[in-house]
Write a structure and sequence with these properties.
Largest sheet: none
Order of helices and strands: HHHHHHHHHHH
CATH superfamily of one domain: Winged helix-like DNA-binding domain superfamily/Winged helix DNA-binding domain
Distance between the termini: 70 Å
CATH topology of one domain: Arc Repressor Mutant, subunit A
Low-confidence stretches: 95-125
Structural class: mainly alpha
Oligomer: single chain
Strand content: under 5%
Helix content: over 70%
Amino acid sequence: MTRVPPSVISGSTRERHKEFEAEALPHMDLLYNFALRTTGNVDDARDLLQETYLKAYRFWNKYEKGTNIRAWLFRIMKNSYINRYRKETREPSKVDYDDVENFYDSIRSSSTDTNDLQEKFFGGLLGDEVTAALQSLPEEFRTVVILCDIEGLTYEEIAEFLECPIGTVRSRLHRGRKLLQAKLFEYAKKQGLIASD
């Protein structure tokens, strides 16, 4: 594969690349955290993040400068996740030749301890019970709870991301928190956070 010398890249392409880096890349950690909580799997989260950024770069000319970049990126991620889910449910399980070829490497890497600092940090952020309770929420509630309570997005940002009114965001957040509270009541008692009767 031949590389294109930097002198051949047009000035407009360089400018587009700089704009994209400056505006989109600072939100990568936030999007990764959301992808990880949505997919529940490190590899799937990384794939979803990569797909999101590839699409965002490809359609960078569609982004209206000065609007909410995080909501735009989240919308791309949400649509990518939905499309991937639909595709997986339509297609039966397939075996990829590359997977077979790299079988030994995958076994070896799964048996070794990971040194990925980010994975270690975020993997232990929520207890197993809390993570399981969060994952068990219906998607529309789980998404709002994650975006608001874990990622710290505003109601306006969430409404823009979900393409729904702010009142709907508030309603889903309230219901999602109530469902989560009910699911975690026994866990809280065991942890001594709530006095036992």
